[in-house]
Structures are given as C-alpha cells and as structure tokens.
UniProtKB/TrEMBL annotation:
Homooctamer. NCBIfam families: PRK09283.1 (NF006762). One of its GO terms (molecular function) is porphobilinogen synthase activity. Zn(2+) binds at residues 120, 122, 130. It catalyses: 2 5-aminolevulinate = porphobilinogen + 2 H2O + H(+). This is Delta-aminolevulinic acid dehydratase. PANTHER family: DELTA-AMINOLEVULINIC ACID DEHYDRATASE. It comes from Candidatus Viridilinea mediisalina. Pathway: Porphyrin-containing compound metabolism; protoporphyrin-IX biosynthesis; coproporphyrinogen-III from 5-aminolevulinate: step 1/4. Mg(2+) binds at residue 245. One of its GO terms (biological process) is protoporphyrinogen IX biosynthetic process.
Length: 335
C-alpha cells in the first residue's frame, strides 16, 4: 500500500503527535560538562574563543560544579592549566597539581557529582605534545626514532603514575586522551596495584587528529609547539581503524569508550554502537561549539536550535553520553 492511503505527514500534524513518535530525546543524564582549572583564587578568566566559558580557580570551579549538579548534570570533565610546564609534564603526576586539587575540592563539596579527569600530558608539557618527545636525554630516548617523535612506552609510565594520583585525589573516572598504544592496560594495572580497582576508565578510544580542536587549545593553553598530533591521533579518513582501536581498548579493560570529535564522526559513533556493548561517549568539541556561537553572534544561525539539533544527532547516532560545552544551556533548553 502506498500513497494516497499512506501519508507519513499524518504523524507530524500536531506537536502532540510529534512528541509521541519522537525516537530520540536528549536526556540530562547523558550530559558531561568540561571545566578548565587554573591556579589562584577567585579567578575566572574568559576563554575568548569559547564565549561563556572561563578558566576557573579551584574555589570558583567548586561553585561552578555546584551549579552544574543543581541542574541535574551527572558529571564534569576536568582539564588543568599547570603553574609551570616542562618536558615531562610533571604537574600531571604531582599530588598538589591543579587537577588533583580540583578533584578533591569538588568531591568534597558535591560528592554525588561524578568527577572525570582528562588524562594526558599535553596541557602540562612545554612542547604541548601528549607525552615524552624523543630528544637526547629524556627517559627512554631512542636513537632509531626521529627527534621529535612521541615516545609511546615511556609516556605510558607517566600516564599510569598520574592516573593513580588523580584517582587518589577523588576522580571517579580516568579518561586517557593521548591515543598511546597500551594506555588502557597500563592505567588499569597502575590503578589496581594502588588499590584503586573501583576507579573507572573511559577511553578516548577513537580520537581523530582534528581541526575542530582549535578553540580548546586556547582554553587549555596547549597548542603543540611544533608539528601536529597526526602520528598518534587518528586520520579523519579512517573508520575501520576506529573499530580496531576500540577492540584493543575493550581487551585492555576499558569501562567506557569515546569518539572525539562528534559531529564530523557520527558514522563512527554508529558503527561502534552497533558493534560494542560498552557505554559510548562522544565529545562535542570546542570547534563544534565555537562555530555555532560565532555564526549565532552574526545572526546567521539560531544557537539554541542548532545546538539541540546537533546534540540530538549525536544521541541518535548512538552516543550514551555527550561531553558538551552546551551542557548547562541544554538542560535549560530541554525544559
Ligand atoms: Zn593530549
């Protein structure tokens, strides 16, 4: 049977009917709000390329976390801006480092809020890369590899060490984002050996070398000092490789998976959703946020509608959780 008996528009005739047949509705439980933490007190420093977002000192981040929890958002994702950067990113594994301080303070003030620690070296290294760079003198220097190449296994050791520090400070979830081979198994055994076997690992399993990260580097003050990240992050042309990456992370003991960025990789989200059982997150990255903000400022796009459509599409593609700079706005817009 077809037209004229069949008329799909019947189900779109009223908003009541539309509500009844809507397949995907964004839920507040799906949202994760990123926070950028810096040293100091009473600090709230505007991130110019991400309107409405600020780098916050720990006391201000606690207040922000409280308002995030009041809205019903279940989790925050912490990024740290260290006092000092060096070749190894030492502040990342310093118990007095900025993220451990923030994790501790937030868990104390808002225990029910899930604290996720982004686990990478790039915010802490003076060269801005996600681990130890191959130059004579660094731990694990390898003369067979080019100078400037990111050393995988020596970096793993730092990630294991820092993960334990962040978990001991109170982080519920460690989210390694550097795309190092073996990062999940290394972090899992480091946590387990330290008696942190209940700490969750959310793997940035399929993270692409993306141009959409531009504004974030402003926010986290972490642009690579030379070259790019294409010898560790994934090629935007590859989807089968994402499946391979996820298979490995599942084997290594990841509890949750992630695709980053989101909008340009909805097909990858869908393929991973169909193949794997683990909870899947998607990161709607800074560029996805800022380009809509910029267009909205010019009156070229309606921010609310564009943001909600984009978030809904990420959920429809199969993401259980969405990390988004619109987390707080989205909750208000859902009401
Ligand atoms: Zn990194």
């Amino acid at each position: 049977m077809g037209f004229p008996s069949v008329r799909p528009r019947r189900l779109r005739r009223t908003t009541g009917l539309q509500r009844m047949v809507r397949e995907t509705t964004l839920r507040v439980d799906q949202l994760i709000a990123p926070l950028f933490i810096r040293h100091g007190e009473g600090v709230s420093r505007k991130i110019v390329s991400m309107p409405g977002h600020n780098q916050l000192s720990v006391d201000m981040a606690v207040r922000e976390a409280e308002s995030i929890a009041e809205l019903g958002i279940p989790a925050v994702l912490l990024f740290g801006i260290p006092a000092k950067k060096d070749a190894l990113g030492s502040e990342n594994f310093d118990p007095e480092g900025i993220v451990p301080q923030a994790a501790y303070a937030i868990k104390k003030a808002v225990p029910e809020l899930v604290v996720i620690s982004d686990m990478c070296c790039c915010e802490y290294t003076d060269h801005g890369h996600c681990g130890i760079i191959n130059v004579p003198g660094v731990p694990g220097y390898d003369e067979r590899l080019a100078e400037g190449y990111l050393l995988n296994d020596p970096t793993l050791e730092l990630l294991g060490k820092a993960s334990v520090v962040h978990a001991q400070a109170g982080a519920d979830i460690i989210a390694p984002s550097g795309m190092m081979d073996g990062m999940i198994s290394t972090i899992r055994s480091a946590l387990d050996n330290a008696g942190m076997e209940h700490t969750v690992i959310m793997s940035y399993a399929a993270k692409y070398a993306s141009a959409f990260y531009g504004p974030f580097r402003d926010a986290a003050e972490s642009p690579p000092g030379f070259g790019d990240r294409s010898n560790y992050q994934m090629d935007p042309g590859n989807a089968r490789e994402a499946i391979r990456e996820v298979e490995l992370d599942v084997e290594e003991g990841a509890d949750m998976l992630m695709v980053k960025p989101a909008l340009a990789y909805l097909d990858v989200i869908r393929q991973l959703r169909d193949r794997f059982e683990l909870p899947l997150a998607a990161y709607q990255v800074s560029g996805e946020f800022s380009m809509v903000k910029a267009a909205a400022e010019r009156g070229w796009l309606d921010e609310q509608r564009t943001a909600m459509e984009s978030l809904t599409s990420i959920a429809r593609a199969g993401a259980d959780m969405i990390i988004t700079y619109w987390a707080k706005d989205a909750v208000k817009w859902m009401r």
